[in-house]
Amino acid sequence: MKTELEKHLLTRSYDDQERIEELLETRYSLTGSQRPTLVLLPTGHDETPKTKSLLHRDDTIDDEQFNKRKINTRLEVREFLKSTINSQKKVIKKVQEHKRSKNPGDSAGKPFNVVKVLNHYKIPLFEDFMPMRSLWEKYAQNLVFPDVKSPESKIPAKQAMLSKLASAEYTGCFMRVLESRNKNFVGVEGIVAYDTQYSFILCLPRDEDPDAPPSKQVGGLRIIPKRYTLFSFDIPLPNTTESKEHTYVSFTLIGSRIEYRSVDRSTKKFKNHNVDDIL
Fold first, then answer.
1. Where are the beta strands (DSSP E) in the chain?
2. Residue-level pLDDT at 55
3. Fewer CB within 10 Å: N-end or C-end of the chain?
4. Do the beta carbons of residue 96 and residue 155 sit within 8 Å?
5. Could you tell me if residue 63 is inside a domain?
6. 242 and 132 in one domain?
7. What's the rounded mean pLDDT across residues 145-149?
C-alpha cells in the first residue's frame, strides 16, 4: 500500500519514525482504528525571515527614531545645498580673478580649467543628470501619452493632459524660466535635480565660451522659487521609427499653483479657477 504522502505529512509533526509507522499501521489495518483522518500536531510558525518590500518600515524603529531619521535626512540635503552653492561662489570668484589678471606676457593668460576646479569642489555637472532626464521623458510619455504610439497618432485632450501634469513628479525634467518677478531668473534653464515644496533646484549647463559670464561658465545648482514664476518644459511624443528626431509638445507651468510636495500633489485634486497672482 502506498503511504508516501501520509508519511511525508506526518514527518512535519513527528520526529520518531516508529511512531509514524505505528500511526499508519493502525490507520489501515483491519484491527486498527481505521480513522479517515490524520492527527497532526501543531508545528509552530516558520522563523525563516521573509523578503521585505523596499517600502517596509522596520518595526524595531519607533516613531521617534523614524522622525529623527527624516529630520537628519532633510538637514543633510540642506547642508549639501548650502555647501555646494558656497563652493560655486568660490569658483565664480576664481574665474573673475583669472579674467582680471590676464596679461599678454603673463602665465595667467592660459585658459582657465573650470572643469578641474568644479571637480575639486565636487560641484554637480549638468551631464551627470542626463540619464535622469531620459528617465523623466519616458515617465512623462507614459503618463501623458499612454495611447500615443507615433507622432501621427491623436494626442489626448488638453484637459486630460493637464490634470495628470498637475500631480506629476518633475525631478529630472528640463525646465526653463519664462517669467519671474526676479528678472535674474528669466531665461535660466536646466534639469530639475530636486523638486521641493516651494522651489525647483535646477542643475544648469555650462557655457564653455571663455568670454561668457563667470556664472554661466560654472553652471551648477540654482534654486528657483515656484511662487511668482512661470516655467516651461517639453515632452517628446513617442517615436516608433529609427529616426532620432522627435516631435515635442510644450507646456507652461504656473509655479504658484504647485507649491506642494510631489507626494502630496499625487493625491490632490486641482480645480479650475481664475488666476490673479501669476506674477
1. 174-180, 189-195, 199-204, 220-225, 229-236, 248-254
2. 45
3. N
4. no
5. no
6. yes
7. 75
CA 220 vs CA 73, 122, 134: distances in Å: 22, 10, 19
Residue 46 lies in a domain: no
What is the signed CA dihedral for 96, 85, 188, 249, rounded to 10 degrees?
A: 140
Write out pLDDT tens, residues 201-214.
999 999 988 888 99
Same domain, 150 and 22: no
Q: Are residues 247 and 136 in the same domain?
A: yes
pTM value > 0.85: no
Give me the number of domains the chain comprises: 2
80 found inside a domain:
no
pLDDT at 193: 93
Look up residue 155 and give its three cell numbers: 494626442
pLDDT at residue 199 tops 90: yes
Q: Give residue for cell 482504528.
A: 33
Buried b (16+ CB within 10 A) or exposed e, 59-91: eeeeeeeeeeeeeeeeeeeeeebeebeebbeeb
Is residue 101 a part of any domain in this protein? no
Helix (H, G, I), strand (E, B) or coil at 253: strand
Signed CA dihedral, 22, 24, 25, 30: sign only: positive
Domain encompassing residue 25: 1-41
User: Are 32 and 1 a contacting pair, CB within 8 Å?
Assistant: no
Mind listing the pLDDT tens digit for each residue in 170-179? 999 999 999 9
Measured between alpha carbons, how far is residue 31 from residues 4, 6, 21, 213, 214 in Å? 22, 19, 15, 103, 101
Find the Cα–Cα–Cα–Cα dihedral 161, 162, 166, 170, rounded to 10°.
60
In this structure, the answer to whether residues 25 and 150 fall within a common structural domain is: no
Q: Say which residues have a Cβ less than 8 Å from residue 91's Cβ, sequence separation at least 6.
A: 114, 117, 118, 121, 123, 218, 220
What's 226's domain CATH number?
2.30.30.210
Q: What is the DSSP letter of 185?
A: G
Axis crossing angle, helix 130-144 with helix 158-165, rounded to the nearest 10? 130
